[in-house]
Write a structure and sequence with these properties.
elongated; 9 strands; mainly alpha; two-stranded antiparallel sheet; single chain
């Protein structure tokens, strides 16, 4: 069957849009570019794409077409294969790994497609090779919102990297539809309805016999929508068009358009409609499939009437059947009977091999009632889909499998599994309760099943923070669970149960919870399960004692994240990295999870990924980025009711606020305590204490910091299962030293040396060296201080490094080694200022002033040509400035490493020199005119 050779119509009223397209191709030739056309349905986006193709060809571009399909949206890589087909000859020339990746995507390899970033890189390499050999490429994507998710992710990644070559990406999507080109920063051009002049011209050109009155009526009804303008006249007979017959009183736009498409399809022969129905349900556009189903090479002849009617065409490059407008597909379905659709689905399934996912889907769509065999096939498809990283698709399939389940037990089990995946992965807690209620109704005996208990526990934990009930539910369900033969699917649920139990233990923060976790894992883990679990338990649950044996394995896992398609596994690896300073290697994989969440995927994992990136940003000094990351994560938490998970985001923002001297730090800490304490959430108590202690340290209130941290830290002990202890090492030591609890500081660092902490990462080794140096009150351990400061890569942790410089500078200044002190104090000050850590900047500046270096005084004031501060010694000046801010003598003494008696003496001298008699007059005396 020959392809219809239809030249694109001349567009009326679209000169501005065509100029935009020409400019887009000109820009892309010099430096790749992407553009999205948006607008309401029928406004002419597809027509503009049709017009763009020959214009791109005329500009020297090779044009490749992709069209999204609603009926193939659930078929992985169906859209991407439309792009790869015309470039297939170039695939073997790629590096072997990339060629194998693309062949797997095309279904020509026994290997499963790899991680989406690797696929995107391979496609990008193929496109670059094509541009190098054949010139610029234009990728034209219609119905972007209907592109399948994996293809959309790959295309979205490509859209971000187009500036590396002469590639033009042009997409079209309805206004309001989310797509892979949404929210990634590429330009959009809204295609507006035609104005009245252009609308009248369009109707007049296509329907010259129509009278002006009828034309005006149609133009008014269509409101500038080109599709309506062209289609609304179709049902009108000649008499109506010539104003000799009565027009309908109402022309409902949407219904009328659907009716028009149905009418045009209904006029086709029955054999043609049957072929079109097969094409719609198949969704691939592959003619060989239609040929096999229709019974031979002559079966495709039935498509000719549809081609002549302009409803479909065969792409001359790909050889695929294309519907010229998406509504034609809807019309085909509308005109078919349920029996015809069922027969077509069964015919398509019959042409597919046993075990094929597409076959299972067709059988499911053909089912008219419960069918346990098909439900079992779908059940397996759901978990295959989950392992490919599409949790949303997996849940959708599980729900369909539950509908097809003949027994209440199977129905309840599959509903409970959908609830479990929804609570732990996709993230809408609001739907979990309803799914569990439906599962209970279907099978009341399954309320204690592993899936149901996991879903309920996740709902209680994340929504209400009820760790004790969640723990009881999970332990009971795991203990009672028996392992059937279908262990692979069961292990996915068991993994979610253990992941939930892990977070119960973490947020509960009590040793007995962790001990029960260890016990149940040892006794109840099935043989093939838990390959990653020991790594998570050792590096995240108990990093002080359990991380070291797993570091090599974890580093290997991190190196392979770019090829890991399973977002649950990606999250587990990143979680394992969070306390042992390996999150930088997980950034790309975590961002993929976040992008998937933004596209409507696994939101629960995306929230966790946001906060893991927040941890990384805090350690790396990217505090403004942290605030942006957590703002989005907290918004998701509010939308999906993840109240407990939100506490991590609040904690991270609280740390930044504390380090920067922002008063909101105290409010955040208070909220964490008020919500967490009644629920027994030990992690939130630690979060709040950390925020408060950091605020106190910045303000030199070392007594308060020591009191807060002493409630968490027992000198001489590093407790098991308290990962946050690794983050408090420097804080506790500094607070203890400044409050003369030197024995506590020494005992604490000795206990740290007995653990694996200093061996886990260079940052922790740096902090251990610095803490040990700080803990010695009698001798400045230059070797330890300088080793900490010179740690390779220390610039990756600027706040920690600057604090060490400050501590060393303070000790040197107190030992009268002013020159050496200034070097480190100046380095600390510069870093603190870059971070916006105002209280810490003030501490460093005060130390510099005390050593005789003028640093940004509050307000230099002159009188009689003299600097007022020249009347004071450096230490008097610093003491006066601190007293003017309201600090007590004891607090000033702590900042300046002086005794309160010495501070009092300095202030008496200041009062005499500045002619004031009280602290109340200090600020005015320092900033006002001399008497």
């Amino acid at each position: 069957m020959a392809s219809a050779a239809l030249s694109p119509p001349v567009l009326i009223g679209r000169s501005a849009e065509l100029a935009v397209l020409d400019g887009h191709f000109d820009s892309a030739r010099a430096r790749g570019a992407a553009l999205m056309l948006t607008g309401e349905a029928g406004v002419g986006k597809t027509a503009l794409l049709e017009a763009a193709a020959p214009r791109a060809t005329g500009a020297g571009f090779r044009v490749l077409r992709i069209s999204g399909c609603p009926f193939q949206r659930g078929v992985s890589f169906s859209a991407l294969n439309q792009l790869l087909q015309p470039l297939a000859e170039g695939i073997p020339a790629l590096p072997a790994r990339q060629a194998e990746t693309l062949q797997a995507v095309r279904g020509l390899s026994e290997e499963q497609p790899t991680e989406l970033l690797a696929i995107a890189n391979a496609v990008h390499a193929l496109l670059e090779r094509s541009t190098a050999e054949a010139g610029p490429l234009a990728l034209i994507v219609d119905d972007v919102a209907w592109v399948d998710r994996p293809s959309a992710t790959v295309l979205g990644t490509l859209a971000r990297a187009l500036r590396t070559g002469p590639i033009a990406l042009l997409g079209a999507s309805r206004t309001g539809d989310e797509s892979f080109l949404s929210n990634i920063g590429i330009p959009e051009h809204e295609v507006r309805p035609l104005d009245d002049v252009s609308a009248n011209a369009l109707v007049a050109e296509r329907f010259p016999a129509m009278t002006p009155r009828v034309r005006r009526r149609l133009v008014a009804e269509a409101r500038g929508n080109p599709l309506a303008l062209l289609e609304l006249p179709v049902p009108l007979n000649d008499l109506q068009q010539r104003e000799r017959g009565t027009l309908p009183a109402v022309l409902p736009l949407t219904e009328r358009l659907k009716g028009i498409f149905s009418t045009r399809v209904a006029a086709l022969p029955a054999a043609t409609r049957k072929l079109l129905l097969l094409a719609v349900l198949d969704g691939s556009g592959e003619l060989h499939i239609l040929q096999r189903v229709s019974g031979g090479p002559d079966g495709l002849a039935g498509l000719s009437p549809a081609e002549r009617a302009g409803l479909v065409q065969v792409d001359g490059v790909t050889g695929r059947l294309e519907f010229r407008h998406p509504l034609t597909r809807s019309a085909v379905l509308d005109l078919s009977t349920s029996e015809e659709r069922r027969a077509a689905q069964l015919a398509l399934a019959a042409e597919l091999p046993e075990g094929s996912e597409h076959r299972a889907r067709h059988l499911a769509d053909a089912a008219v009632g419960p069918d346990d065999q098909v439900a079992a096939l779908l059940h397996e498809v759901a978990y295959n889909t989950l392992r490919r990283g599409d949790a949303v698709g997996a849940i959708t399939i599980l729900l369909r499998a539950s509908e097809l389940s003949a027994t209440g037990t199977d129905k309840g089990r599959r509903l409970a599994e959908a609830a479990c995946l929804g609570a732990n992965i996709t993230g809408d807690l609001r739907n979990v309760r309803a799914l569990l209620d439906n599962a209970d109704h279907a099978d009341p005996s399954g309320v204690d099943s592993l899936a149901a208990a996991t879903a309920a526990a996740s709902h209680l934990l994340n929504g209400e923070g009820d760790v004790d009930t969640a723990h009881r539910l999970l332990i009971g369900a795991i203990e009672a669970h028996t392992w059937p033969d279908e262990t692979e699917m069961v292990e996915d649920i068991f993994r979610e149960a253990l992941n939930t139990l892990l977070m119960v233990c973490f947020y509960g923060g009590r040793p007995e919870l962790w001990h029960s976790f260890e016990d149940v894992v040892k006794r109840r883990r099935p043989p093939a399960s838990g390959r990653l679990l020991p790594v998570i338990l050792g590096t995240f649950g108990d990093p002080a004692y359990g991380a070291l044996p797993f570091l090599d394995r974890l580093d290997h896992l991190i190196s392979g994240l770019h090829q890991q398609p399973d977002p649950v596994r990606v999250f587990g690896i990143a979680l394992s990295s969070s306390y042992i300073d390996r999150l930088p290697g997980c950034r790309g994989a975590l961002r993929r999870i976040i992008d998937d969440g933004r596209d409507g995927g696994a939101v629960a994992l995306a929230i966790q990924a946001q906060f893991l990136l927040g941890n990384d940003a805090y350690a790396g000094g990217q505090w403004d980025e942290l605030l942006e990351i957590t703002e989005e994560g907290l918004a998701w938490c509010a939308t999906y009711d993840y109240r407990l998970t939100a506490s991590t985001g609040h904690f991270q923002r609280g740390l930044v606020a504390a380090a920067r001297g922002d008063g909101t730090a105290r409010e955040i800490a208070d909220r964490l305590v008020s919500w967490g304490n009644p629920r027994g959430l030990g992690a939130l108590r630690v979060y709040a204490a950390h925020i408060r202690a950091l605020s106190a340290l910045g303000g030199a209130d070392f007594d308060a910091a020591h009191r807060l941290l002493r409630a968490l830290v027992t000198p001489g002990e590093v407790p098991r299962f308290m990962p946050h202890a690794l983050w408090l090492l420097l804080d506790f030591t500094e607070a203890a030293v400044h409050t003369d609890h030197h024995a506590e500081a020494a005992a604490h660092i000795a206990a740290v040396r007995r653990t694996d902490i200093p061996l886990v990462s260079p940052r922790l080794a740096m902090l251990a060296d610095a803490a040990e140096a700080m803990a010695d009150p009698d001798v400045i351990d230059h070797d330890l201080f300088e080793a900490a400061i010179a740690t390779p890569g220390a610039e990756r942790w600027p706040f920690d490094w600057a604090r060490i410089c400050l501590a060393y500078g303070e000790r040197l200044r107190r030992a009268k080694a002013g020159g050496a002190a200034r070097v480190h104090l100046d380095a600390a000050l510069g870093t603190f200022e870059r971070l916006g850590a105002a209280p810490w900047s003030a501490r460093a500046a005060n130390e510099l002033r005390a050593s005789g270096i003028p640093v940004k005084p509050l307000r230099p004031v002159e009188s009689d040509g003299r600097d007022r501060h020249a009347l004071l010694t450096p230490q008097e000046r610093v003491a006066a400035q601190l007293a003017a801010t309201g600090l007590t003598n004891k607090q000033i003494a702590a900042q300046l490493f002086l005794s309160p008696r010495t501070v009092a003496a300095h202030l008496r001298s200041v009062f005499r020199k500045l002619n004031v008699t009280s602290r109340g007059g200090l600020r005015d005396a320092l900033t006002g005119p001399m008497p």
